[in-house]
């Protein structure tokens, strides 16, 4: 059975490669045409998409709209608007060494690419890399996550009606199918998910020397200084955490660091914001996504049931296994060696770590692997500067959370444990392109010094030529030498 | 006995990085200046080491190693402030009031594996990039060029900050030990086989890698009517074959594609050029490098010893085992399934393949793994355009060969089997940096539309915001709704 799958995967990739080599994906017209079709698909199928997301995650419509549908649409529109400019070869300067010549950097498609996406934003995390791959002129196979089955099968059903199926495919399935896909030779693999599977993806890619983009997660911290407008800060943290798929987002705040004296006020502000957003009994709210499945539900309740944190819960903690519901929960001062402070939470639990001085926060963050995002709320410009220079993370946002994801003018991606490579907008186009240096020479400008037989004089000429020493060059050419 | 690379040294380099010393622009510049001094003061020692490892002629040693490094250092020192400055990014209206910038930051501790064929430029050019970007570095030169490796290990510490930059000597055992540690980037120059091992080891720690590999770089020879153009082309091509470390270069010409009907004329020209470069007795010239070691000599000998290949030799072919010398050799139309046409040659053998039409070269190239470089000698603008559009390779150079390596305004690197990730000039700085986006907002303007509990008005607001429909946005803010909104809403409710 497994072997049959491999054969099937191999023949699919072979077919896509053959079609890619025919060259049609390279043209501007084809790429923009596909973008228009994708845009049309999103517009015509909006309600089906919302329904699938609701089925997979009980995602509130407005979250689906802002964080998935609009994002994907904006991404298509940006490509349609900018692609001509992106595709244009970039002129490069040439110097004396290669005079006379001209040079340019040409963006060419890498070939046949694989996109493996995640279940938490199953629509945009699938479509956005596909948009990038197509905009760069590649053939692409999308493997949506089996953990969000409704969205996965929606893709399999609708995508073929809109895009060119000779070079764009959707493969549904789980570990077996993914393994079969990973055995094939790809020209790029774009993976969104966790760092455990990422290691498997990268090791598989190594066999074929395939470059990878790994979009992972990590524990994204929020530092809250005591001088902030607490109401605004609490709102922005709350919507970034619980309003982002109920914390099941790679850029959702994972834990908060704040000065000890300020912590009680912050806890109160978060509590009242949560009540304002989700009511006295959040289990009744329609505005919270639920936990994706029982595996993740168990993982999260395990974090809560850790003995080390049993007396640390200051808000929430209620759960309902049948409805896969866990209440928005706040833990104060969970010890550093507790499970919840070591693993990425990826759910509606929020830890608050207290420090003596706000500057001590940097050490807390730097003692852990580099996160995908780091957030700071402050009015202090000096602290802001220190934060930027002393914390390393995929991206940084000051006085808000998660918003940087929505900005297509910024590269989105991790560093260290939070991933390799970046995408979004032009950066997606670049991620799926090879930047080919092209040098045009003429037959003039021959420097015989380049060629054997070699003499000491040739060496002097070369020295002048390579280092742009015009006077030395001139002296040598007329037979003098400075040396 | 190979020296053991201790955990303590890696720990020391990490600590140095954490001390933030390598981040300062002054530290970076001081190290780059120290490298300048190293090149200036030790040039003769460098030439000596290269002579010992590869019999590399002094002019080649300067042209391909010391010269490009001098340039690279000058450029880095000149541009470092500019490269390090954060870059403002324009934000769309919807995100107002917001500012954004890209801040380049060092990755941390990086490992550089270099190669034996250009043991100085391939060690120090990545090192320049890593230092410019503010990283701490371990450099592991190739054990196949032992004189250069030993010289670097002994001499570099006299110039560079030993707490931040270390040179480690050794072979496979040491490399394996190094690969067990967690690095923030691994930069490797070498073969595909080892490239796979490197990447697979890197995957354990999710370490990003740059793989600078090779491949069979073709030179395509279109027929040119002017004798001078033909002569210049051949001059450049022959030099890019035998004149780059004796063909032991990842960007050396590997094989030649030529139209059948012009073949004999061009071959005569190639032969006469070899003669003018290396004389009647090329074994006596000191203008060509020798083969690096016995292992590679035997490998090249094996390529030549294939009977079908033997029968195709039209020039050269003599070997001197004691001196590891192989004569510049031309092989006309060896079988396409022979080893010499399937392995990267990396030596002074040049297969010449004849085609009916020069345009067939496109298919010929596309049916093989993507090479690091393609060289095309032609005046035909249509062929030029087709080559750029229809083939894929690390780079393309028209009417010359190998010289693109010297241009720091072009990214240097492969694609497909020839590797990934590029460097040189600013691209080196970028390679060893993380471009961190930093977005800043203030805490003043706040609209309730961005927050739960969600209702249909908020959805409408956001729909307008995302469509950059500022007029409707204003209406909604003022409490108006339009017919279109209501229709939309009804439709949405019906469908869900």
UniProtKB/TrEMBL annotation, chain A:
Organism of origin: Acorus gramineus
Active site as annotated: 215, 250
GO BP, one annotated term: aldehyde metabolic process
Name of the protein: Aldehyde dehydrogenase
Lineage: Eukaryota, Viridiplantae, Streptophyta, Embryophyta, Tracheophyta
Stored Pfam families: Aldedh
SUPFAM superfamilies reported for this sequence: ALDH-like (SSF53720)
Recorded GO CC terms: cytoplasm
Matches recorded under Gene3D superfamilies: Aldehyde Dehydrogenase, Chain A, domain 1 (3.40.605.10), Aldehyde Dehydrogenase, Chain A, domain 2 (3.40.309.10)
Domain Aldehyde dehydrogenase: 11-436
GO molecular function, one term: aldehyde dehydrogenase (NAD+) activity
PROSITE patterns referenced in this protein's UniProt entry, alphabetically: ALDEHYDE_DEHYDR_GLU (PS00687)
Keywords from the named record: NAD, Oxidoreductase
UniProtKB/TrEMBL annotation, chain B:
GO biological process, one term: aldehyde metabolic process
Gene Ontology CC terms, in alphabetical order: cytoplasm
Residues that span the membrane, as ranges: none
One matching Pfam family: Aldedh
Family annotation (InterPro entries): Ald_DH/histidinol_DH, Ald_DH_C, Ald_DH_N, Aldehyde_DH_dom, Aldehyde_DH_NAD(P)
Active-site residues, as the UniProt record annotates them: 212, 250
Protein's UniProt name: Aldehyde dehydrogenase
Aldehyde dehydrogenase domain span: 14-437
Catalytic activity, as annotated: an aldehyde + NAD(+) + H2O = a carboxylate + NADH + 2 H(+)
Family: Belongs to the aldehyde dehydrogenase family.
GO molecular-function terms, A-Z: aldehyde dehydrogenase (NAD+) activity
Key words, A-Z: NAD, Oxidoreductase
């Amino acid at each position: 059975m497994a072997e049959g799958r491999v054969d099937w995967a191999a023949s699919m990739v072979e077919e896509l490669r053959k079609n890619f080599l025919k060259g049609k994906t390279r043209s501007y017209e084809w790429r923009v045409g596909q973008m228009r079709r994708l845009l049309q698909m999103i517009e015509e199928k909006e309600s089906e998409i919302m329904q699938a997301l609701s089925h997979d995650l009980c995602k509130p419509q407005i979250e689906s709209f802002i964080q998935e549908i609009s994002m994907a649409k904006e991404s298509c529109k940006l490509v349609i608007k900018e692609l001509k400019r992106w595709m244009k070869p970039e002129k490069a300067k040439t110097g004396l060494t290669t005079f006379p010549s001209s040079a340019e950097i040409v963006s060419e498609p890498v070939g046949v690419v694989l996109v493996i996406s995640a279940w938490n934003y199953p629509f945009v995390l699938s479509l956005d890399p596909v948009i990038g791959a197509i905009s760069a002129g590649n053939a692409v196979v999308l493997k949506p996550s089996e953990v969000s089955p409704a969205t996965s099968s929606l893709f399999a059903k609708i995508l073929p009606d809109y895009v060119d199926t000779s070079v764009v495919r959707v493969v549904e399935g789980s570990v077996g199918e993914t393994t079969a896909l990973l055995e094939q030779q790809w020209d790029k693999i774009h993976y969104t998910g966790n760092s455990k599977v990422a290691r498997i993806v990268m090791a598989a890619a190594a066999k074929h020397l395939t470059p990878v983009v790994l979009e992972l997660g990590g524990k994204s911290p929020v530092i809250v200084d005591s001088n902030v407008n607490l109401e605004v800060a609490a709102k922005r943290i709350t919507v970034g955490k619980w309003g982002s798929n109920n914390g099941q987002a790679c850029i959702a705040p994972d834990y908060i660091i704040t000065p000890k004296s300020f912590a009680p006020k912050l806890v109160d502000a978060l509590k009242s914001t949560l009540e304002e957003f989700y009511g006295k009994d959040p289990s009744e709210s329609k505005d919270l996504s639920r936990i994706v499945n029982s595996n993740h539900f168990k993982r999260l309740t395990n974090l809560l049931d850790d003995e080390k944190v049993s007396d640390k819960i200051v808000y929430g903690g209620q759960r309902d296994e049948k409805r896969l519901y866990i209440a928005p929960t706040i833990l104060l001062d969970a010890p550093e060696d507790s499970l919840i402070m070591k693993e990425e939470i990826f759910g509606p639990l929020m830890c608050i770590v207290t420090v003596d001085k706000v500057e001590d926060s940097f050490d807390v963050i730097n003692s852990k692997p580099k996160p995908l995002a780091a957030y700071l709320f402050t009015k202090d410009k000096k602290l802001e500067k220190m934060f930027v220079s002393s914390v390393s993370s995929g991206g940084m946002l000051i006085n808000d959370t998660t918003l940087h994801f929505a900005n297509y003018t910024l590269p989105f991606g991790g560093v260290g444990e939070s991933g390799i490579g970046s995408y979004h907008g032009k950066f997606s186009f670049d991620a799926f392109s090879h930047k080919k240096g092209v040098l045009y020479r003429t037959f003039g400008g021959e420097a015989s010094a380049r060629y054997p037989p070699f003499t000491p004089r040739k060496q002097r000429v070369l020295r002048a030529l390579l280092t742009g020493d015009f006077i030395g060059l001139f002296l040598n050419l007329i037979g003098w030498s400075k040396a | 006995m190979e020296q053991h690379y201790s955990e303590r040294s890696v720990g020391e380099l990490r600590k140095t990085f954490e001390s933030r010393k390598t981040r300062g622009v002054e530290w970076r510049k001081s190290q780059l200046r120290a490298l300048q001094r190293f090149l200036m003061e030790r040039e003769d020692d460098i030439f000596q080491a290269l002579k010992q490892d590869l019999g590399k002629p002094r002019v080649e040693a300067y042209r391909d190693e010391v010269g490009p490094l001098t340039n690279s250092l000058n450029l880095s020192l000149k541009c470092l402030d500019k490269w390090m400055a954060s870059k403002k990014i324009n934000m769309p209206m919807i995100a107002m009031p917001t500012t954004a910038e890209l801040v380049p930051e060092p990755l941390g501790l990086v490992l550089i594996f270099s190669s034996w064929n250009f043991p100085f430029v391939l060690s120090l050019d990545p090192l320049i990039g890593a230092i410019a970007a503010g990283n701490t570095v371990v450099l592991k030169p190739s054990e196949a060029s032992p004189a250069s490796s030993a010289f670097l290990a002994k001499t570099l510490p006299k110039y560079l900050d030993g707490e931040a930059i270390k040179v480690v000597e050794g072979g496979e055992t040491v490399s394996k030990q190094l690969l067990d540690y967690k690095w923030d980037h691994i930069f490797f120059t070498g073969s595909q086989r080892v490239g796979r091992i490197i990447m697979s080891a890197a995957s354990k720690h999710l370490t990003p890698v740059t793989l600078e590999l090779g491949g069979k770089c073709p030179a395509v020879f279109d027929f040119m009517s002017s004798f001078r153009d033909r002569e210049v082309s051949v001059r450049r091509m022959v030099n890019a074959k035998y004149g780059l470390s004796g063909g032991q270069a990842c960007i050396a010409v590997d094989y030649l594609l030529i139209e059948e009907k012009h073949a004999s004329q061009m071959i005569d020209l190639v032969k006469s050029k070899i003669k003018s470069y290396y004389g009647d007795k090329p074994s006596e010239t000191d203008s060509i490098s020798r083969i690096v070691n016995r292992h590679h000599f035997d490998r090249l000998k094996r390529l030549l010893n294939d009977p079908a290949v033997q029968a195709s030799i039209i020039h050269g072919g003599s070997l001197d085992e004691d001196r590891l010398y192989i004569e510049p050799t031309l092989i006309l139309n060896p079988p396409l399934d022979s080893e010499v046409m399937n392995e990267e040659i990396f030596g002074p053998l040049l297969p010449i393949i004849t085609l009916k039409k020069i345009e067939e070269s496109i298919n010929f190239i596309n049916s093989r793994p993507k090479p690091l470089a393609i060289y095309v000698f032609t005046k035909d603008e249509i062929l030029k355009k087709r080559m750029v559009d229809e083939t894929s390779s690390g780079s393309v150079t028209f009417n010359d060969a190998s010289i693109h390596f010297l241009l720091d305004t072009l990214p240097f690197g492969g694609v497909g089997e020839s590797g990934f990730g590029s460097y040189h000039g600013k691209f080196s700085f970028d390679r060893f940096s993380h471009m961190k986006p930093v977005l800043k907002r203030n805490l003043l303007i706040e609209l309730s539309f961005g927050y739960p509990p969600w209702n249909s008005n908020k959805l409408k607001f956001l729909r307008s915001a995302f469509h950059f429909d500022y007029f409707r946005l204003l209406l909604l803010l003022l409490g108006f709704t339009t017919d279109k909104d209501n229709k939309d809403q009804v439709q949405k409710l019906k469908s869900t």
